[in-house]
Amino acid sequence: MDFNSKKLSDQFDKAVSFISGSNLSDVDTQLKLYGFYKQAIEGTCTQPKPPIYDLKGRKKWYAWSEMGSMSKEEAMTSYINLVKTINPNIETEKTGWVTVSTFAHDEIPLSENEKTISDWVKEGDLNKIKTFIGDINVHDCMGMAPIPWGSDWGDLKILGILVENHLGDVNLQDNTGQTALHFAVFCSHEEICKYLVSMGARINIQDEEGFSALEKCLDEKLKSLLSMN
């Protein structure tokens, strides 16, 4: 690596370090940085476009794909110049050694209009969940429905709203065949397990690997409790 290339690489690492430690909220700028970053690290985008329901994935794919055949050096320079508009003093600030990760810019937030009830469950937004109108027994872009998410997070209040107010199916399986009870036993959420069973959750539904929630339960006390049902 010649001197100029080494200097550019060092400046790029410093800019990445700054962004990784910042609280940048502007989505358009995040997407531009993501596109430049991926182009600089991996080159031209050759990945297939994510499915239409994967809104985050499609935003990131377009941001990277729009770089076209831009060289890695050009992408690094564009990234640095964009960071300078956020922090003009980036070149004079001292930073420690940075390990550049391809995941450094993966979290592109959704707007409120793009969020689903699964997002509200993960955020614990009770008001949005209570007033939701629609079918909650549908899978999100990660192949999970709201009830398994609520079970995974261990929030009994949210789970109660999903099951009793919105008539959620406690035995609905995700894209790997797991139910809300699988997630509850894996996380040792005893109260969640009790509630799900009381609402009709079946302990012997098998996932794609052939294991039931009971078989995946590592907590002996919880396993004994489930075996009684």
Automatic annotation (TrEMBL):
Keyword set includes Repeat: yes
Keyword Iron-sulfur: no
Residue ranges of ANK repeats: 176-208
A matching Pfam family: ACBP
GO MF assignments: fatty-acyl-CoA binding
Record keywords: ANK repeat, Lipid-binding, Repeat
Organism domain of life: Eukaryota
Signal peptide interval: none
Domain ACB: 8-92
Stated name of the protein: Acyl-CoA-binding domain-containing protein 6
Native organism: Acyrthosiphon pisum (Pea aphid)
Lineage of source species: Eukaryota, Metazoa, Ecdysozoa, Arthropoda, Hexapoda
